[in-house]
Amino acid sequence: MEQYTPDPIHLWKARYHAARDEATAKPIQVTYDQGNGCTHTYSFRLRALPGAEEYLGVYLYNRAWAVGAQQIHVACDRRLFEAIRGDFDCNGRYAGLREMMERVYGGFQLCWEAGAAKDSETGRQRGQHKSRGILETPRPDPYCGRHIGVDLGGTDLKVVALRDGEILFYAKQTWNPRTYQDPEDHLGFIERWICRAKQQVGFRELDGIGISTAGIVVGAEVKISGLGAGLSQQQYQDTFCQMAAHLSHRFEDVPVQVMHDGDAAALWVAVDMGLTNVLGLAFGTGLGAGYVDVNGQLTGALCEIGKCILDMAPDAPEHIYNHTHGPALHYLSQNAVFRLAPRHGISLDSIPERAEKLKHVQQLAEEGNRSARSIFQYIGRRLAMAIVEFYDYFGMDRVVLFGRVASGLSGEWILASAEETLMREFPQNKVQLYLPYTPEDKDPAVTREFGQAIAAAYLSSMRLSGSAGIFEISS
Hints:
By secondary structure, the protein is of the alpha/beta class.
């Protein structure tokens, strides 16, 4: 399938992760601190074999994208730490990670912790991680009150109005926010659609407004989003970043909550599918992700796992910005379809739009083209390998697949291939895979297309606290 020899990250893990009683192995403990009280800790034992430094660097890199960090504290042998420290400097191989964490959390440091890391059990079982989410109540009731939910995508805006969990209004409008050079163009557009939804259902007052958006969200701030690409840095920081506060002011101080779209998908799963400890994956232009814990709560994890390295081969596909090879987004998104199609004799050159290219390959597969179908089966095999890696970040019990690549029959082929690969190659991994399904009392056509807007409305009914997420994993 690939024109090079893949070197999956799980093979590196098998090579370098040691059992607890291996005398030559070195204990490693890593703590990721976002600087806001949210921390995530991982521990394992590292075999002292050639290449261990490279593996440890990737280990630190991947989990930083998964959970986020202003500081990474590494308790390990000092010589081992010095061997990898330069990779995380401004000119190191992971400079892209450093730059992003500085933008999101206001700084970045890789810190050595004196003394040996504590030994930990290997082979984490269900329940060994601890998490306290950022929602104030263990299982808040989202079906309460009058709420507006808005999903901000790159090509369209979706809005829903809910009363006590019932969908009373939904609508979609195309927009091109990346071209807007005045922040009022963004805020005014969103405000007008909230007003329209409010008027359509006769809400005189609102109990809350929820916003789902592409980009990186920390707390109530949209730290990074391509939707504001046309704004100056100062305009972005003063307005788009602070859209929750601005919109709240425009609607008479109604509480406004903001979440990134990956978390919106995961929250929708927790509420409408009734599944918890779940990782939602959106196979689209890139790979979006969100995670809710065993209580159906958001944990504050960054979930930028599309950038995590899954393939250690030096000639694996390269990330266009971070210049690392083998990131997840090249295997679990449209990128995989477009890269593999020509190698299977499927030309896409005459189709200008990416969405139409994907539809063409999906249609060929549905018409019986075996080469086209094999592309989605390949994505499924790669998904299985990714799940094994992502499990070490979150300890999830379930994965739900979203996005255009996983829609229709192609989603069923991806899921079936992933399940078969997990059963054959990773029988110890018991993660369950799902495609989205809809409660009997709701219209599947509406909930699937507007699910993230609906989840945003749910979020607006849940009071948020300032409590920090705590996450501890032994692997």
